[in-house]
Structure formats: structure tokens, C-alpha cells
Design a protein that fits this description.
This protein is of the alpha+beta class. The protein is 28% helix and 23% strand. Strand 2 and strand 3 form a beta hairpin.
Length: 123
């Protein structure tokens, strides 16, 4: 009865609240250490399947007299060794597509074009 009049809680209740605050502190520290509260980094696009033909909007085009003059960011091992190269660009130059001379002449600027688009590699 004396405890009720003085306003203090019984010792058992005090231990439970201390344990709860300790467990809460451990959970917060654990979440912070694993990066749960950190902001997510910028998402990188998933690599696209090279066997699938995608449609992208053509933003530019460039023909090269020799394929060796083509930017190295768009060159691949499977490209021909010699001869002219015709490239269509999409996404402001972020995607490129090596096409034939007929497709190069036929593809209108600003149109969706099905092709095996390849992303520009970092240098």
C-alpha cells in the first residue's frame, strides 16, 4: 500500500519496461547496421535478353564508312570486321542498333523500331 501512495511502480513492472526499451534499442541498432534505414542507391537497369527484339524510339542515326570508325562503346565482338556500318540510336544515344543499309534508309526518325538494341558500354 505504501508504494501505491508514493506513486512508484512495483519493481517487477520497472524491470519489464527496462527490458522493452533495451530490446527496442537492440532492434533499432540492428536495423541501422544492416542498412534498412539507408536510402536506396540508383537502380541500374537489368540486362536485356539479347535474343529478344525490343522496340525503341529512334533519336538519331549515323553511317560509318568503315566499321572501325564506329564508337567503341557500341562495338561488339560479333560485329563484322570490315565494311560500312549503319547505326540507329535511341534514348539520346544511350542505345544503339547496327542495321543494314536498307533498314538504315527505311527507318524514319522518331518512330518505334524493332531491333536488337545494345546499351552503350562505359569506356
Amino acid at each position: 500500500m505504501v508504494r501505491e501512495l508514493s506513486g512508484s511502480a512495483p519493481p517487477l513492472v520497472r524491470r519489464r519496461t527496462q527490458r522493452r526499451s533495451w530490446v527496442g534499442c537492440v532492434l533499432v541498432v540492428g536495423a541501422a547496421s544492416c542498412g534498412a534505414g539507408a536510402s536506396r542507391p540508383a537502380e541500374t537497369p537489368a540486362p536485356e535478353n539479347l535474343a529478344v527484339v525490343y522496340e525503341r524510339r529512334i533519336s538519331g542515326r549515323q553511317s560509318y564508312v568503315e566499321i572501325t570508325l564506329m564508337p567503341s562503346t557500341f562495338r561488339r565482338v560479333t560485329d563484322p570486321f570490315a565494311g560500312p556500318a549503319y547505326m540507329l540510336y535511341a534514348g539520346g544515344g544511350q542505345w544503339g542498333c547496327l542495321v543494314s543499309d536498307v533498314e538504315f534508309a527505311r527507318a524514319p526518325d522518331g518512330a518505334l523500331w524493332p531491333c536488337h538494341w545494345r546499351p552503350a558500354r562505359r569506356r
